[in-house]
Amino acid sequence: MRRHLQFLGLTLTLGELDERLAWATRERPGATALLEHVLGLEAAHKLEERIARRVHSSGLVERKALEAFDWNFQPKLDKAFVLELARLDFVRRRDDLVITGKTGTGKSHILKAFALRACEQGIRMRYARCVDLLDDLHAGLADGSYARRLKAWASPALLIIDDVGLGQVKKRGDEPTAAHTLYNLIDRRHSKVSTAVTSNIALSDWGRFLGDATLTAAILDRLAMHAIRIDIDGPSYRQHVATERAGQRPATAPPSS
Ligand SMILES: Nc1ncnc2c1ncn2[C@@H]1O[C@H](COP(=O)(O)OP(=O)(O)OP(=O)(O)O)[C@@H](O)[C@H]1O
Ligand SMILES: [Mg+2]
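# adenosine-5'-triphosphate complex -> structure
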């Protein structure tokens, strides 16, 4: 039997065969229940492995779930709307999504949760912080792999560009501006596949961040103007956590004289 399991690639059952047999001896399930039990565990394991591979290759380094999102903390955010978007029908419709709001309001949390859902649903997705995406493309200019890299960023059904406006967009002498590079990418993706973006700066400040007002206007015309928009108007959860922690810290003893 171990040989069959090995050949079929049923690695979980192979590793836990003694456990399964002990269960069958103890519970005495019927043939159907036994098969259902063994195959069910193996299938769940295979699915989890597949999701983990997709998460890894997508560039998503942190798993966030909407189940862990405290909606009461952000009462102005339309929970029903976000949950509806989380079904990812907007990806199938090839719509874009732009989430803006001040720092710490949960923008990245929501898109990372969407990213995970995409992996679970088998939607081809890539995730990157804006500065990392630009660095990757600009590295391609140096070693001749720009076209290949651009294609790789342009093709996924969902591309998440997180944190536009955060970090330093590095520009070496002869490199195109960030606006130029991002324009090339957004123009390729627009109306064909879905792009989701978060930003904690106003769209009117993107030009300064990306280094070219005219090309930024062209990006915003393709992306933001026709995208599904969410603006999170509320407090910072990071600040909330820091305040809570400070409140829990034991009072320091007065210095002894
Ligand atoms: N409503 C919430 N419930 C639970 N956790 C939250 C909530 N909002 C934010 N967080 C958590 O707070 C931290 C900061 O959130 P997040 O990174 O999503 O903020 P952001 O809006 O993207 O900020 P920035 O503009 O600085 O990138 C994360 O660890 C996130 O999981
Ligand atoms: Mg963020």
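# post-check
Residues 31-58 form the longest helix (28 residues).
The mean pLDDT is 92.
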